[in-house]
Amino acid sequence: MNSETMRKRDGAPLTDKLLTAIARHLNQDHLEDLLACAKTLAPKDWAEDLIEQASIAKLDPAGMELEITGSSQRQSLRIDFPEPAKGVLSLKRCLGTLITESRAQLGWAAATDDS
User: Fold this and answer.
1) How does the average pLDDT of the chain come out, rounded?
2) What confidence category does residue 89 fall into, taking pLDDT thresholds of 50, 70 and 90?
3) pTM across the whole model
4) DSSP three-state, residue 19
5) What is the mean pLDDT of residues 69-91?
């Protein structure tokens, strides 16, 4: 595949400003999706039913750091993507897969908002 085709497939390059905007969007509009990720990927000492909230503290091409809270506890949780995102579209695919798998593992309905 040539570099132009790869850019189209991966989307616009990920800048710090863009990653911050994406994290803000996820924290505002996709809290339930982030909660699903936290519940399925949290360390074993965090029982799934104790996790009440999750938000993105940091997003980068290789993964995200969630701030999870519950039962008067707070902890950071790093989630690495299977491979670093090379652009906006590849990041959206990584996040979409992670969210879909997490929701399915919990038996939650699939997210209906694909933005």
Assistant:
1) 91
2) very high
3) 0.89
4) helix
5) 94
Average pLDDT over residues 40-53: 85
Q: Which of 86, 87, 88, 113 is nearest to 99 (CA)?
A: 113
Pair type for strands 73-80 and 53-60: unpaired
Environment class of residue 47 by beta-carbon count within 10 Å: exposed (0-12), middle (13-18) or buried (19+)? exposed
* Structure tokens that stand for 51 in this block: 């996790």
Q: How far is CA 80 from the centre of its chain?
A: 9
The alpha carbon dihedral of 91, 96, 101, 107 has a sign of: positive
Question: Does 14 have pLDDT greater than 70?
Answer: yes
User: Strand, helix or coil at 76?
Assistant: strand
d(CA 106, CA 83): 24
- Give me the residue label for tokens 């938000």: 55
Q: In this structure, are residues 104 and 93 in contact, taking their beta carbons and an 8 Å threshold? A: no
The DSSP 8-state label assigned to residue 49 in this structure reads G
Q: Which two tokens stand for residue 66?
A: 């969630």
Read off the amino acid at residue 61: P
